[in-house]
Amino acid sequence: MMAMPDAIYGGHSGVTSSDKPLEYRDPNQSVKILGFWLFLATDMLLFGCLFATYLVVRTHTDGGPTARSIFDIPGFTLETFFLLTSSFTGGLSTLAMRNGNKKALVSWFAVTIALGLAFIGLEVHEFIGDVASGATWERSAFLSAFFTLVGTHGSHVTVGLVWMFLTLLQVAKRGITPITARKVFVVNLYWHFLDVVWVFIFTVVYLSGRVM
Question: Which residues form the Heme-copper oxidase subunit III family profile domain (predicted)?
């Protein structure tokens, strides 16, 4: 039986003779994916330090605003909905990529970007409201740790959105190739990592802040 080609170039036929996903078939792409896993490990250490700092100083309000007084339950719940939904649509874009469906990949990427923008918009609105109420970064150790942790995550999300948009443009122009497949996989891996970090922020910062 004649083997089918391993590369996919923007069409809708995603069946190949290889058992490996497209992004892993080129050894060079596999090495780059491994390197990105190592990067995520270092980023995990960064967030671990920020979480540890926040847990130590979260009660150090210096008579200023507390977590209970500034955390808006509907607001951070809606943020969570948008970001976790974007993780699901990002997964669908990876599935479309592995099926060789360029149109579906671009569409799901666009939906993921829209949801990510909604998340960032809500977070910016939250920060503006906090500052307007007197909950500024320099007011207390608690607020410094809060803005640093949540702001660092937000900046990561912003980078992810720009990265995803640029990857979408490359897929739209070049189709699905081993190189663009690796880029789609890696940016979605980064996006899922940010969602996991947000689950911890949602639990450790917002929920515990409202309860304690």
Answer: 34-210
Q: How far apart are CA 27 and CA 25, in angstroms?
A: 6
> Residue 146 falls within a domain, yes or no?
yes
SS3 7: coil
Reduced to 3 DSSP states, what percent helix, strand and coil does the chain have, rounded to the nearest 5?
A: 75, 0, 25
Distance, CA of 30 to CA of 106 (rounded, Å): 23
Which residue numbers in the chain have pLDDT < 70? 1-18, 212
Tokens of 105: 């990949």
Q: How far apart are CA 58 and CA 173, in angstroms?
A: 48
The pTM for the full model equals 0.86
Q: Which domain holds residue 160?
A: 22-211
Query: What is the CATH classification number for the domain harbouring 113?
Result: 1.20.120.80
